[in-house]
């Protein structure tokens, strides 16, 4: 079981809509934060922009859930 858990990949790159849902904020707020420089968007292709969740949590000074705590 532990080996299988360790092989699981955790999503780190989020589209703006996914990030808004993850943070429980509006989509327009995600873009406002990006415009204000609070978070850094990464354009990976035409019309596709993603955000690194770890960077977002650090920049917004939010604590992520410590998934390794109880292992």
What does this protein structure show overall?
It is a single chain. The model is unreliable at 67-71 (pLDDT under 50). Helix 2 packs across helix 3 (27-36). This protein has four helices and three strands. The radius of gyration is 14 Å and the shape is globular. A hairpin with a 2-residue loop joins strand 2 (42-45) and strand 3 (48-52). It is an alpha+beta fold and 71 residues long. A three-stranded antiparallel sheet has the order 1-3-2. The chain has helices at residues 2-7, 16-23, 27-36, 53-59; strands at 13-15, 42-45, 48-52. It is 44% helix and 17% strand.
**Biggest sheet, in brief?**
3 strands, antiparallel
SSE arrangement, N to C: HEHHEEH
Mean pLDDT: 83
Strand order of the largest sheet: 1-3-2
Helix content: 40-55%
Number of helices: 4
Radius of gyration: 14 Å
Unreliable residue runs: 67-71
- What is the straight-line distance between the termini? 11 Å
Tell me the total number of β-strands. Answer: 3
Question: What fraction of residues sit in β-strands?
Answer: 15-25%
Task: Assign the structural class, choosing from mainly alpha, mainly beta, alpha/beta, alpha+beta, or little secondary structure.
Answer: alpha+beta
Dominant shape: globular
